[in-house]
User: Which sequence fits this backbone?
């Protein structure tokens, strides 16, 4: 039927529908009960998310204090904070205490927090960008690249010549997978998220094979060193390393947070992203580049720490949903908290022995994660 | 793509560009447009001018490039030759971001890998607006009401049914109030009631808001009834005919394009054509993917043949729906045969 200017005169359109359409078109700002309820519900959701974030921060601060206090020399909880406060204000009263707390014990905790933040943010972004729940710094080849770099440094003896060689080589090699994914994606056929993650897994196997070959030829001492690096630990990090980690992780995470709204769009599919005004291809390259840098900066100092990157986003999604604007900061803080808690447990579970943080995380986090997934009423999956 | 271009693109990610694509009435012109993935074009030499508001239904068999056509229109696919202009500007020069302010696109709905709540999913559609959060929320609220999904607002998108996904996708397309709305099979997963409701709604929006609404549809009767214009596509990726529903949805066109025998009757209330489908055409070996034109030619040459049988079948179908008097004659016929 012909176009009719006035919908009320169109016999095809029912009267009630005319009213519905007119209500939609009207630009009135008047509130009705339904809208107020929607706003109320939404604000409640936001409050719940804020509560989750605040809880993470709180647990992180308390655990960090406890982690510093814990050690061969017993220092009370209060003394710990007093010493840290005195150090910050430049009013050091007890130099011995200051040395133990600030120089010996703090770096691993600070590194744990930064590392946890970095890896968790990378996990969220990689999963959303590649639209794959299995994406993390491990499955995109970043960790294996770093592992290979460190192995080269150790087995070829560079690590002995220069104490930073391991970190530098690990950093360079861990950038390789992301870089090659980005270069490859200039070809149209290789630009889909599925191809990208498959490519990362392919690279992971190649790097692991090379690493294994190098390990087969190496001396027992080197082998032990490589192995220790591979399980990942916060013990080797000292204050000199932390500025490097900070300089990459924090600005990177902030840029990603600014892009989080656009990441939401990208996560709904390429066609949709284009229709909503985002070039999915360029956006993906930018985000993968950032995550590549962040994860490289963390992994090259700490060694391969699995689990945080993969599982933190999933756990946080269960609590606060998949909206990246909130998921990114919440995951960052949850990841930081998780690292500190796991490191503390690793040092305290078995007397006189230290379990690597990655191992502890897998032991405690694995079953918890499975329980969260299988429990009744899980809405995230 | 050079590094320089890439840098430019990244800048636009952060910076809002003030330039508005167009003002005034909407106009989309496709001129000699072709698109193909390899050598073989999916659509070829498409010429369409859409410059009047209204509901445009795109119909045609599977694989003729209906989705490709609408994706070329809003630059989701980059055309291989020809040109698409939106209010006089070539899409090649306009950024996705500017097109997005003007054209809303509703894809064939699929569930997302990580699903947000319905409210947040629709809120994503507002991402090009610099409005306050409250006015965005109001827009989302209105769109949800328009599609009757207000009660789903805090549900997780992943938990919904296919039909509900569809409604959310339409709401997301409408939330930014585009001047042009393009929908890929918006009624695909809906029940009959909502198929009618959504199509009626799209017609009403086109008329009331003076929007151009383009939708792909597989329902010829719904298109014939509600569309202001029907665009019929045919193999191999060409436009068969554009025009008023009664001119496009004809017995000849449906048989030629779809390869299905049919009968067209006039609706008493609205005067729109109603298609009654008969048998699908195939050759003697039972191949269904044969050029319908060839079969029609053969039938004409043979004079009788399959055509006659089909018209009998059609007769029976139409008798079935033409009220009781015919039914009675059908019964009488049956009894006469029994005697």
Assistant:
């Amino acid at each position: 039927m012909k176009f009719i200017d006035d919908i009320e005169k169109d016999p095809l359109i029912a009267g009630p529908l005319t009213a519905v359409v007119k209500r939609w078109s009207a630009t009135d700002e008047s509130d009705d009960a339904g809208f107020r309820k929607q706003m109320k519900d939404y604000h409640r959701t936001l409050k719940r998310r804020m509560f989750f974030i605040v809880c993470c921060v709180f647990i992180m601060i308390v655990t960090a204090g406890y982690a510093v206090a814990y050690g061969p020399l017993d220092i009370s909880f209060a003394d710990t904070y007093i010493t840290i406060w005195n150090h910050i204000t430049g009013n050091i009263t007890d130099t011995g205490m200051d040395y133990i707390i600030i120089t010996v014990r703090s770096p691993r905790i600070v590194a744990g927090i930064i590392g946890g933040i970095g890896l968790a943010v990378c996990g969220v972004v990689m999963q959303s960008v590649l639209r794959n729940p299995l994406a993390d710094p491990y499955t995109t080849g970043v960790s294996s690249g770093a592992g290979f770099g460190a192995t080269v440094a150790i087995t070829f003896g560079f690590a002995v010549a220069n104490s930073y060689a391991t970190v530098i080589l690990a950093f360079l090699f861990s950038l390789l997978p992301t870089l090659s994914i980005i270069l490859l994606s200039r070809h149209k056929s290789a630009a889909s998220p599925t191809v990208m993650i498959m490519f990362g897994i392919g690279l992971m196997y190649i790097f692991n094979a090379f690493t294994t070959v190098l390990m087969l030829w190496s001396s027992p001492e080197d082998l032990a060193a490589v192995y220790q690096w591979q399980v990942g630990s916060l013990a080797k990090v000292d204050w000199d390393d932390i500025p490097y980690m900070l300089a990459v992780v924090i600005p990177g995470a902030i840029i990603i947070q600014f892009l989080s709204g656009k990441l939401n769009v990208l996560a709904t599919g390429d066609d949709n992203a284009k229709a909503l005004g985002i070039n999915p291809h360029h956006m993906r390259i930018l985000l993968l580049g950032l995550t590549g840098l962040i994860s490289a900066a963390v992994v090259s100092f700490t060694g391969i720490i699995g689990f945080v990157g993969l599982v933190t986003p999933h756990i946080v999604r269960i609590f606060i949903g998949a909206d990246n604007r909130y998921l990114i900061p919440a995951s960052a803080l949850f990841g930081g908290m998780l690292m500190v808690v796991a490191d503390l447990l690793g040092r305290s579970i078995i007397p006189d022995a230290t379990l690597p943080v990655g191992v502890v995380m897998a032991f405690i986090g694995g079953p918890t994660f499975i329980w969260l997934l299988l429990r009744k009423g899980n809405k995230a999956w | 793509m050079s590094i320089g271009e890439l840098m430019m693109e990244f800048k636009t990610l952060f910076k809002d560009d003030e330039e508005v694509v167009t003002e005034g009435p909407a106009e989309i012109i496709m001129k000699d447009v072709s698109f193909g993935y390899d050598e073989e074009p999916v659509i070829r030499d498409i010429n369409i001018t859409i410059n009047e508001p209204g509901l445009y239904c795109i119909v045609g068999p599977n694989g003729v490039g209906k989705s490709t056509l609408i994706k070329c229109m809003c630059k989701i696919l980059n055309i291989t030759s020809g040109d698409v202009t939106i209010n006089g500007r070539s899409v090649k020069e306009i950024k996705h971001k500017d097109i997005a302010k003007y054209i809303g696109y509703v894809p064939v709905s699929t569930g997302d890998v990580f699903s947000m709540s319905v409210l947040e999913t629709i809120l994503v559609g507002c991402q090009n607006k610099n409005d306050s959060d409250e006015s965005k929320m109001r827009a989302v609220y209105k769109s949800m009401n328009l599609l009757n999904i207000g009660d789903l607002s805090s549900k997780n998108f992943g938990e919904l049914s296919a039909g509900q996904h569809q409604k959310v996708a339409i709401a997301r397309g409408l939330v930014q109030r585009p001047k042009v709305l393009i929908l890929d099979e918006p009624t695909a997963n809906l029940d009959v009631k909502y198929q009618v409701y959504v199509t009626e709604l799209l017609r009403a929006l086109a008329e009331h808001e003076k929007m151009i609404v383009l939708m792909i549809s597989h329902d010829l009767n719904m298109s014939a009834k509600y569309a202001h214009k029907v665009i019929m596509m045919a193999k191999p990726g060409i436009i068969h005919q554009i025009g008023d529903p009664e001119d496009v949805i004809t017995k000849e066109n449906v048989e030629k394009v779809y390869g299905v025998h049919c009968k067209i009757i006039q609706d008493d209330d609205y005067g729109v054509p109603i298609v009654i489908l008969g048998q699908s055409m195939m050759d003697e070996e039972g191949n269904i993917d044969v050029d319908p034109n060839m079969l029609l030619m053969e039938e004409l040459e043979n004079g009788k043949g399959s055509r006659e049988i089909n018209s009998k079948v059609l007769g029976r179908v139409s008798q079935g729906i033409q009220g009781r008097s015919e039914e009675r004659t059908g019964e009488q016929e049956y009894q006469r045969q029994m005697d």
Chain B touches chain A through 72 residues (CB under 8 Å).
